[in-house]
Q: What sequence folds into this?
């Protein structure tokens, strides 16, 4: 039996943050990342918004009520949290801490507020911003979803404009014009970090 390599470095566990304005396509892109990297953990966010058609509890979100979420704030349960469009969203600190301690890479689907909080709290973060081709295209996508009122779409577009101004916060920016291009670009970025770390440990 081969003896362990005492010079081998422990695996660096990364938090890969995918952020985009509402309607920017991050849900689709996260789904593709999870297909490509089946060993990567996915942080399912908690939210107080209502479940939409086609969504599943524990898969798309953990759906909880406002009091439970606010109790979590008081107890320090959330690694990050935000009030967005009238609803709370948050990430379990316990889930992230346990995953990182086990050397597992974790994928997070966050907004700008959440990204800032995670970057301040954790090392080894790779923040990737998904940029829509334009606000006009983003508006078309939001209308095509058919899930938001005109007032909600207007609010989301105003928020998107502010979020797009903060793209310098991120390590990488991908313009999500065509999935045939943006998916490989995103996969390549994540694969680079994971492969580089493997080579570092083996070397």
A:
């Amino acid at each position: 039996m081969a003896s362990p390599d005492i010079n081998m470095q422990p695996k660096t566990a990364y938090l890969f943050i995918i952020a985009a304005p509402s309607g920017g396509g991050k849900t689709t892109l996260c789904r593709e990342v999870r297909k490509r990297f089946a060993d990567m953990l996915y942080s399912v966010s908690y939210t107080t918004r209502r479940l939409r058609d086609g969504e599943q509890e524990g898969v798309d979100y953990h759906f909880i009520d406002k009091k439970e979420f606010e109790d979590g704030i008081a107890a320090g349960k959330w690694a990050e949290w935000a009030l967005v469009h009238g609803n709370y969203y948050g990430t379990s600190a316990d889930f992230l801490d346990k995953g990182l301690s086990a050397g597992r890479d974790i994928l997070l689907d966050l907004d700008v507020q959440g990204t800032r909080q995670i970057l301040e709290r954790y090392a080894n973060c790779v923040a990737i911003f998904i940029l829509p081709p334009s606000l006009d295209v983003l508006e078309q996508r939001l209308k095509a979803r058919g899930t938001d009122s005109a007032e909600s779409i207007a609010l989301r577009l105003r928020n998107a404009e502010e979020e797009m101004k903060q793209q310098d916060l991120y390590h990488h920016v991908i313009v999500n014009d065509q999935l045939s291009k943006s998916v490989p670009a995103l996969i390549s970025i994540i694969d680079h970090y994971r492969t580089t770390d493997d080579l570092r440990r083996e070397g």
User: Anything to note?
Assistant: DSSP finds seven helices and nine strands in the chain. The chain has a mean pLDDT of 89.
